[in-house]
Design brief:
The complex is a heterodimer. Chain A has 14 helices and 4 strands. In chain A, about 55% of the residues are buried. In chain A, strand 2 and strand 3 form a beta hairpin. Chain A is about 75% helix and about 5% strand. Chain A has a single domain (about 5-130, about 145-305), classed as ABC transporter involved in vitamin B12 uptake, BtuC (Orthogonal Bundle), CATH 1.10.3470.10. Chain A is mainly alpha-helical. In chain B, helix 2 packs antiparallel against helix 12 (about 235-260). The longest helix of chain B is centred in the last third of the chain and has 29 residues, at about 290-320. Chain B is mostly helical. Classes of the chains: A mainly alpha, B mainly alpha. Chains A and B meet through helix 2, helix 5, helix 6, helix 11 and helix 13 of A and helix 5, helix 6, helix 11 and helix 13 of B.
Chain lengths: ~300, ~450
């Protein structure tokens, strides 16, 4: 295996995206809204398509705004349908995102003559290509760095999310665990819900533009769920989830380079392997976590029976 | 624009080119609608999402295996078999995580979905580097290739649809109890786990066959939307399932036909949008749980409650906390009624206007006071008596049968029976006024005290 500076950047970008998602994912998992990331990342397609058709260019800012708006709308529609129609939340989420996705697909195919927009590219991103888009070349302690655009964007996103989580930690905690108590304490839990959803939408769009939707979906859920098995303290869960997310990003890129070689193939998709690594970490923790792991609990149970 | 005759030909399957596609999507819609009904009631709609994503590594792996063993990597049965295997493993993983850890349903589905899909992407990435492997054919699993379905697709679909319908008919009773009260089914000694897995296996079969037709993302809609739409029309499982299958079939039929005669409409997307249209219409005008009908029912209930509140307030004011033989009808100032409850001026005026139209009250000097009529007094006495009996019932028997409380019933006797009413009236004896039909309130409240 050969390691280039481009590989370092892939890992850095992956870790930043994973960390940004994991920060918010904790609250999604606690609110039992884990599938929101999945829903949003599919549903933004019409936003991207419309922004593209209107501006006629793949300018990333307008597409970003279009996608973020549709992302927030996904959360809003989901809540409307489940509230006014009394439909199960999962079902209403499924209806909203499949419909929006279909709409996006339709728009893209309709405008196919003058649109160079490939849904698969939108959904999978291309983390392998992001380091090529260099925008900043600082010199640090004599080292010559080539900082890609995505690294800067994602650093901004993770910083913003971290500030949000720290600043609203109390509100987020109470409204995630007990929305009614939060309301009774004067915290607007509906506002918190929509703030969180907006951030999830923005993060989702910002990340998958760089690294593809599969990382976003995986990192919103898997690290947070893993951390949830390790601790009962929320702040520790948040910290652990970010570490796990970044760890799976590093391992993911390494394994994307190494594992296929064992079977005599070249390398494979980094984003796919990052998700797989997160899954492996989750399985390990699920089996062996001291308090909530499957095996330790089984051992305790047998001991108790004896 | 397409000719009218063309549209006619497509819609009624006269056109050979589209006949197969339209029939296939119709069948798929029926099967998905049927299975989706069970998923919806089990609150597992997104299981279809997880399942369809979890099939991707199976498709990739079976392709690699088939090529490695020197076979044809693109052979449909092999790919579908692989898809079904990882799909089932994915479902089992969700059930395992949910039951063995503190992770909830939604997160379990999300974990399996993303990890399996990630593995699928990684495997497809490997295939792309293989000399044999233009993975292009495999990508049809993600986006579907509705327009190019062939006879073998049709045969598989017919087989799966027949399987699904037969199983649902044979095991209807079992699946119904599984949907509504799993614990009760387990307590009856039914093999709940086995039934659960059988249901998921059927859903896997439908999903895997559907992948080819409408694609991985859009099959999810087929599993959720028709069932959710059907739910607005009925509270009965058998009717809902039939309706859901019909809506699914109709979406498949209309969607595939539309995409056949209008250029550049991808069939999968159109089918989903047609189903979404069915959903929106059902949500608005569905007769059982639709928004409009629920709103109407609610406002009717509100009016009835308002009428009862007004009459009771008037009666209690006339009663004035004293126990008398006969109530004297006198005018009651608006201000005093307003003080009885937390209602707004407009609300109260609305109730009074309705009562006036019914001939229950009169307004002698128009503006600020009202007078009960003879019929009004009788009605008010009835309402107040019933209300107090219900209160007594709740005070005495709330622990046994609160579910029988129906404050709206005109005659308490119809719900509780003569015996119970006599018993309640005796309980109210202490408060009871001699000769009056209406017992006194078991908990007198004097506003303003």
């Amino acid at each position: 295996m050969e390691w280039y500076s481009i590989d370092t950047w892939i890992v850095v970008i992956g870790a930043l995206a994973a960390g940004a998602c994991a920060l918010l994912g904790n609250f999604l998992v606690l609110r039992k809204m884990s599938m929101m990331g999945d829903a949003i990342s599919h549903a933004v397609l019409p936003g991207l398509a419309i922004a593209f058709l209107v501006t006629g260019a793949r300018a990333s800012l307008s597409m970003f705004i279009g996608a973020a708006i549709v992302g927030v709308l996904t959360a809003v529609f989901t809540q409307w349908i489940s509230r006014f129609g009394k439909v199960d939340e999962g079902a209403s989420m499924g209806i909203v995102f499949t419909t929006l996705f279909a709409l996006g697909l339709l728009l893209i195919v309709q405008g196919a003559d003058h649109v160079d927009l490939d849904p698969s590219c939108v959904l999978y991103g291309a983390i392998e290509l992001t380091p090529l888009d260099v925008v900043w070349r600082p010199t640090l302690y004599g080292y010559f760095l080539e900082v890609p655009r995505s690294a800067l964007v994602l650093a901004g996103v993770i910083l913003f999310n971290a500030v949000f989580v720290v600043a609203f930690f109390k509100e987020l905690r109470i409204s995630s665990f007990d929305a009614e108590l939060a309301t009774a304490m004067g915290i607007n839990s509906n506002l918190m819900h929509y703030l969180l959803m907006t951030l999830v939408a923005v993060t989702t769009v910002a990340c998958f533009e760089a690294v593809g939707s599969i990382i976003v979906i995986a990192m919103l859920i898997v690290p947070a769920a893993t951390a949830h098995l390790l601790t009962d303290r929320l702040w520790l869960m948040v910290v652990l989830s970010v570490l796990i997310a970044m760890g799976s990003a590093v391992l993911g890129h390494l394994s994307a380079l190494i594992v296929p070689a064992w079977f005599g193939f070249a390398d494979t998709s980094t984003s796919g392997m990052m998700a797989v690594m997160a899954g492996l970490i989750f399985s390990t923790v699920m089996l062996f976590a001291p308090k909530y792991g499957v095996l330790p609990r089984l051992v305790r149970k047998t001991k108790a029976v004896r | 624009m397409p000719e009218l005759a063309d549209i006619w030909n497509v819609l009624f399957l006269r056109d050979y080119n589209t006949r197969l596609v339209v029939i296939c999507t119709m069948l798929l819609g029926c099967a998905c609608g049927l299975m989706g009904g069970f998923l919806l009631l089990r609150k597992r709609s997104l299981m279809g999402d997880t399942l369809s994503h979890a099939t991707l590594p199976g498709v990739g792996l079976s392709f690699i295996l088939a090529v490695a063993l020197g076979g044809d990597g693109k052979s449909l049965p092999i790919l579908l078999g692989g898809a079904a295997i990882t799909g089932v493993i994915g479902c089992a993983a969700v059930l395992f995580i949910r039951e063995q850890t503190r992770i909830k349903d939604d997160a379990a589905m999300g974990i399996v979905l993303s990890v399996f899909f990630g593995a699928g992407i990684a495997i497809l990435g490997v295939i792309q580097t293989m000399p044999e492997g233009s993975a292009a054919g495999l990508e049809s699993f993600i986006y579907g290739k509705t327009a190019s379905m062939v006879m073998s697709d049709f045969q598989i679909l017919v087989f799966v649809t027949i399987c699904v319908i037969t199983c649902s008919l044979l095991l209807f009773k079992e699946f119904r109890l599984l949907c509504f009260d799993e614990t009760f089914a387990a307590a009856l000694g039914w093999p709940v786990k086995f039934l659960d897995i059988l249901l998921l296996a059927l859903i896997t079969a439908v999903t895997v066959t559907g992948l080819q037709a409408v694609g991985l993302i859009l099959i999810i809609a087929f599993l959720i939307t028709p069932a959710a739409a059907a739910r607005f029309w009925t509270n009965q499982l058998d009717r809902m399932l039939v309706l859901s299958a019909l809506i699914g079939g109709a979406s498949g039929w209309l969607g595939a036909s539309l995409s056949a005669f209008i250029p550049r409409l991808p069939a999968g997307a159109v089918i989903v949008l047609v189903a979404a249209l069915f959903f929106v219409v059902s949500m608005l005008i569905g007769t059982e749980r639709g928004v409009m009908f629920r709103f109407l029912r609610q406002s009717q209930l509100k009016k009835r409650m308002g009428r009862q509140h007004l009459l009771r307030a008037l009666y209690e004011i006339l009663e004035g906390g004293r126990v008398t033989e006969e109530l004297n009808i006198r005018t009651v100032p608006f201000r005093q009624i307003r003080g009885r409850r937390t209602w707004s001026d407009t609300q109260l005026r609305d109730y009074i206007r309705r009562a006036y139209n019914e001939g229950l009250v009169e307004a002698p000097n128009k503006v600020d006071s009202i007078l009960l009529t003879k019929t009004g007094l009788a009605e008010a006495a009835q309402v107040t008596r019933n209300h107090r009996l219900w209160e007594m019932y709740l005070i005495e028997y709330a622990d046994v049968a609160t579910s029988r409380v129906d404050r709206d019933a005109d005659m308490v006797e119809h719900v509780l029976g003569e015996k119970m009413v006599t018993r309640l009236e005796n309980k109210l004896q202490a408060y009871r006024s001699a000769g009056s039909l209406v017992p006194q309130s078991p908990h007198p409240i004097h506003p303003g005290d």
